[in-house]
Model the fold of this input.
Amino acid sequence: MNNIQRQWDDFHSYVERRDVIFYYVGYFSQTIIAAMADAVKLRVEHAGAVAQTRRKLFSSFIEMAQNIVHYSADSYEKEGHSETSMRHGAVFISLTDERYYLHCANPVNADVAEKLREKLEHLRSLTIDEIKLEYKETLRAETPADSKGAGLGFLTMARDASAPLEFELSPATADDNGSGTSMFYLRATI
Amino acid sequence: MDNLFIAASPSSPEVDFRFDERRLSLKGESYPENAAQFWGDIIAALRSFLAEDSGATAVTVNVALAYFNSSSTKMLFSLFGALNDKAKSGAEVVLNWYHDEDDDTIFEFGQELMEDFPDLVFHDHAVKS
Done:
């Protein structure tokens, strides 16, 4: 067996062992998200997910990817100014025992990290009925000033997931301006 | 008032507002980068049509959106709110709500609209996939 093939085999066997069906790491922009959305649709259809599961996966995937574009602390600065946002993050989808898991990770600043922790701990304390109720209330409320979406993103993911959203924040590392950056990891079970 | 047509893009729906025919249609998927801006412009055009309109025949709104993200959901709620205000003032506004027959999320959002905006004449259309 030649070397190139061996590298592929090693890589594939790792991916298979971890049940990974889709993986991307790099910069996220709207164009990249739209292209990935197509790929994810095809991939989960190929994996045999039923329509309702496919829709929930797609929905949570878009919310996660757009969160990265909006909130990742690592943004790509082109020379000159660009209107479009591009920020760094990672996402992967795994399929274990007929359950789909959506994972995303991106760096966040300390102030964002604290808000995420507060919001997600709160969501984790709610039952599915309470989540649906809060979704309805938020839909009818004014949009929070610090939200680039509508304050509905995590509620949408929590509503579509079959288990509470799981998250971790790494200890903050000091950066140049001393405010600190953490890695934010989120996992949704569909 | 000029009609409003916006062609579909990979992440935004086709918008076909034929104000002259009193027929407004939305079709496709909605997860634009900036939903507030995308839908804000559309809602602004709709509001000016509704403000100057005194037509006696019904306004028909056909919505066949297969997916909308959380920030679009919020904006759609405002759009239907504007239509409901018009209906409340006496105009007939018919909302045809199309969704895949087994898409509970979009069906349920339609039910929310029906509850919150009772002045719209709401027709649910389950489409066979």
About this structure: Chain A touches chain B through 30 residues (CB under 8 Å). Chain A has one domain: 3-189.
